[in-house]
């Protein structure tokens, strides 16, 4: 009689899931010199399905045509990368007039289009400047708050005691009304406040060693950063915080962030925190800078090769 040989149990198969993540990047690309690094990093990351870039305004502090300036910078980066395939839409040219009135734009319509898709998995929308276009989309169609959409915002102050005389955080200050619309909406929000995003500094020496040799794109990234510092920064400096890059990191590797869930605030006219209306926000208090920056540097080298 033949004795049956026990067989090992069949290996369980992992659940099927999309191998890429749908993302939109909303960027005030010509405001400073760090959006450029975040845009390039996102476009060089194969697991991110870039559904579109939206050109955002950055107030009138430095330009009266800030949204169009952002659009021109996005187009320049895409040209350097040879990425004519990427969809680009213009966002609002200015902040919301109040918390009830949207500023309609092709960028807001792109958000609505992608948020309502039922066939492609979750959507992450990273905002590297003000929340104008997200707030406008919510005011045009509040039902998107119930879709599988996550807002990742680089902006707002830290949640601990503020130092005397601390200025309103820049991205928040460019549209406080929009921030209040989004934070009251019930959307899923991951916030990277100023206390966290400033912890992503790189020095000129490191940029010259790791980024500048990466073709015309690498040289441009470094030169425009040094030029921005020379134009706008008073005093000696040889570094810059790539403060928008944590948004890309959170899309690539959300476990790299140290989060704390807090009551979602509203924001006063001076940019301070006020009690909210009962929702919550996931606040990223720190991000893994080693992974974030080295991943970007490696992808730039790979693309140049």
Automatic annotation (TrEMBL):
Keyword Hydrolase attributed: yes
Domain Inosine/uridine-preferring nucleoside hydrolase: start-end pairs: 23-262
Gene3D superfamilies in the cross-refs: Ribonucleoside hydrolase-like
GO BP, one annotated term: purine nucleoside catabolic process
GO CC terms of this entry: cytosol
InterPro entries per UniProt: Inosine/uridine_hydrolase_dom, IUNH, Ribo_hydro-like
Coiled-coil ranges per UniProt: none
Keywords: Glycosidase, Hydrolase
GO molecular function: purine nucleosidase activity
Keyword Hydrolase applies: yes
Name recorded for this polypeptide: Nucleoside hydrolase
């Amino acid at each position: 009689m033949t004795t049956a040989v026990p067989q090992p149990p069949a290996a369980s198969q992992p659940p099927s899931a999309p191998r890429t993540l749908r993302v939109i990047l909303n960027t005030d690309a010509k405001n400073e010199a760090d959006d450029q690094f975040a845009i390039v990093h996102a476009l060089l990351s194969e697991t991110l399905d870039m559904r579109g870039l939206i050109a955002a305004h950055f107030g009138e502090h430095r330009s009266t045509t800030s949204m169009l300036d952002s659009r021109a910078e996005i187009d320049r980066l895409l040209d350097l990368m040879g990425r004519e395939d990427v969809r680009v839409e213009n966002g609002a040219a200015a902040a919301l007039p109040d918390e009830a009135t949207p500023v309609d734009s092709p960028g807001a319509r792109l958000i609505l289009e992608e948020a309502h898709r039922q066939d492609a998995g979750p959507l992450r929308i990273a905002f590297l400047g003000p929340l104008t276009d997200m707030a406008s989309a919510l005011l045009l169609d509040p039902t998107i708050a119930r879709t599988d959409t996550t807002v990742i915002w680089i902006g707002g102050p830290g949640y601990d005691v503020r130092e005397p005389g601390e200025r309103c955080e820049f991205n928040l200050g460019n549209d406080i009304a929009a921030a209040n619309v989004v934070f009251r909406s019930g959307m899923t929000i991951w916030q990277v406040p100023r206390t966290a995003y400033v912890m992503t500094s790189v020095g000129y020496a490191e940029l010259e060693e790791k980024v500048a040799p990466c073709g015309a794109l690498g040289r441009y990234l470094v030169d425009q950063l040094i030029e921005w510092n020379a134009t706008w920064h008073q005093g000696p400096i040889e570094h810059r915080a790539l403060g928008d890059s944590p948004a890309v990191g959170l899309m690539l590797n959300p476990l790299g962030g140290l989060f704390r869930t807090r009551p979602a605030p509203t924001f006063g006219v001076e940019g301070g925190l006020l009690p909210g209306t009962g929702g919550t926000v996931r606040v990223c208090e720190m991000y893994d800078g080693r992974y974030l920056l080295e991943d970007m540097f490696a992808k730039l080298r790979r693309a140049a090769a």
